Amino acid sequence: DALLRTHPGDPRFHLLRGRARRKLGDLDGALADLSVAAPDRGSGSEALLYRGLVHRALGNLPAAATDLRESCARGPADADRCSWLGAVLYESGAWGEAADALRAFLEEKGVQTGIHWTPGHHFSLFKDCPHDDLAGTEAFYASIISLPFYTDMTAEECQFVSGLMGDYFRG
């Protein structure tokens, strides 16, 4: 508070106070401070990350996803941003986008992923065949990720990929 009295519009100090208020459970105060810091080019990416977490704590998943997406766009793909965005998207039922967040994180770290399963009705042989509603199949197809897995993979490569997965899901 003392720093904000001498530097009332400084977004860095609003970011610091917003983070402190979040830790103390003052979510409305945190939201106000982080909203002041969010437009700043220097501290805005971090402010958006924490404002997204405040929105999540308040149960506003659409606002949380918006802030976390913007934080990811402004800053580097790192475990905090990607895993929190992935968690919010998963909680809101956007499984395909949650998988995309994980893919982006892994790609940033040099790990290639893919999708090695295609629903049968996507093949040309079955495209025109009548079928029931396949919304569940489509949702599953949009949300799966194939991690590197091959016979020549070294123990170090396995540990690297599994370590990244651990980092991602621990956030």
Please provide a written account of the structure.
The protein has 171 residues and is mainly α. It is built from 9 helices and no strands. The protein has helices at 2-6, 11-24, 27-37, 44-57, 61-74, 79-91, 95-108, 135-143, 155-170. Helix 2 (11-24) packs antiparallel against helix 3, helix 5 runs antiparallel to helix 6 and helix 6 (79-91) packs antiparallel against helix 7. The protein starts with a helix and ends with a helix.
Approximately how much helix is present in the residues? 55-70%
Could you describe the largest sheet, including whether it forms a barrel? Answer: none
Could you say which overall geometry the principal axes of the C-alpha atoms support? Answer: elongated
Q: Low-confidence parts, pLDDT < 50 over ≥5 residues?
A: none
Secondary structure class reads mainly alpha
Gyration radius, to the nearest Å?
20 Å
Q: DSSP strand (E) fraction?
A: under 5%
Average pLDDT reading: 84
Count the E strands: 0
Q: How many alpha or pi helices?
A: 9
**What is the N-to-C succession of helices and strands?**
HHHHHHHHH
In whole angstroms, the N-to-C terminal distance is 29 Å
Task: Write a short abstract of this structure.
With 171 residues, this protein is an all-alpha fold. 64% of the residues lie in helices and 0% in strands. The chain is elongated.
Write the layout of secondary structure elements.
Elements: H1 2-6, H2 11-24, H3 27-37, H4 44-57, H5 61-74, H6 79-91, H7 95-108, H8 135-143, H9 155-170
Helix pairs in contact: 2-3, 2-4, 3-4, 4-5, 5-6, 6-7, 6-9, 7-8
